[in-house]
Design a protein that fits this description.
Length: 545
Amino acid sequence: MPQSPDALDAVAVRAWCSLALEALGRQRAAIDAINVYPVADGDTGTNLYFTVESAAAAVEAVFAAHETGPTVPAHADVVRAMAHGALIGARGNSGTILAQLLRGMAAVLSEAGDADHLRTALAEAAAAARLAVARPVEGTVLTVATAAAEAAVATGRGSGLEEVAEAAYEGARAALAATPGQLPVLGRAGVVDAGGQGLVTVLGALLEAVGGRARGGAVGPAPEALPLTGDCAEPGPDGGPAFEVIYLLEASDDAVARLRNRLDALGDSLVVVGGDGLWNVHVHVDDAGAAVEAGVEAGRPYRIRITHFAADRGSAHREPAHREPAQRAVVAVVPGDGLSGLCAEAGATTVLARPGEPPASGELVDAIRRAHAREVVLLPNDAQLRHTAAAAAEQARTEGIRVALVPTRAAVQGIAALAVHEPGRSFDEDVVAMTSAAGATRYAELAVAERQSWTMAGICQAGDVLGLIDGDVVVIGEDVPGTARTVLDRMLSAGGELVTLVLGEDVPDLLGDELSEHIREGYLAVDTVVYRGGRQAAPLLIGVE
């Protein structure tokens, strides 16, 4: 058995995220089944899973960025990545609260990960979560978080890391067992709080990460007489609001304070978490448009998700009867809003991957559902999303949707695949044609080096322009135009008939004209098409077919 760590360092945080994701994956269906508050929509376990999945993906991205270095990432960077990942991927009421709990912990653990800091972090997290909820209710995940914090604080100074983690876990378990007596709807259903159960699972993973011993915590029994699918999920048991509205919001603290007041007057289950200009907003309302409009007035909302409890969430495994599903659709992940518009015009349902914020599998599942088709072709358009896309495809298949994953590794491969998509063909023939078109498209991109590092093309310095072909650095240049020409020459030396150029937000149109002229002068019979990609991570994407 590996020696227990003396501190919740970068490696231990990574292990915690991984273990929590695995544990929630095992218990997801059971937690969904006991979800009766605030709305009996049977999705708490799923929402918590997707929230932790996003946190774990953010942590893995930090470690991936340090693969070529001699040391692991800085502890503070990993802790902050965990909190940020949870914030941008938070789903549902419980997932949003969990994101705030992790954010509260990160504010303390970024300083150090010893036992004293863990004790303080748990207390700060519980307090932050209560402040994020407009109208706290006892018998929920908030009660469980408070009990965990109080038990951890009671260990006193001088306690070891494992002792603090175990006290928090046991305190949470005891509080969870008491929730049916605190919240009448739980008592009537004969279950513990689903969100609290999820938190116990996450704390059990924390204890396993620091102590090396797996901890469970039985999930409360599912209510015998309460169906959790089909038409059961009408607005809450007390005739509550009909819509769940969630979005990320870029806004100032003052604007968010005003937003809280406005949304609190519109509905209930209001949770606003975040800070430093980025917030995750969750609310249940009857007027979804007013909730989104309030976000627009406060700042810039995006990743807006509106769920109708009766017609959507309550029938997560079937589509509303009033609209027949299409036979086939395409879902594509795109790196910028410019390509989002292009792909949408071609008939695809798109998922926007903002720079540094890859979509979680839950977002891809949502997009597959929105496509409203019996057959869906999924284009991840990023090699790093292959596992996420595979998980989303598997989830959608359990809901009766036939999904084919075309392993596109870049947006230009997705464009090529979408260009040959033909709904009139058989599904298998269409998937083969799209896969063939994507595979025949070589891809490249330009990036700006953030620091000195080793590459396959030599040592680069901060500010250098890197030319990557099929994911590998092959050119180190001083500027975008010169590096782009060198990359194009290397790619076209092996032949090609069509070059696709996707310009980033800060790249002038003149670059597209210059590169098109370069191709016309040097390569006969090679056509060029130029698109504006909008805000994307790379200043230039290149495809050669």
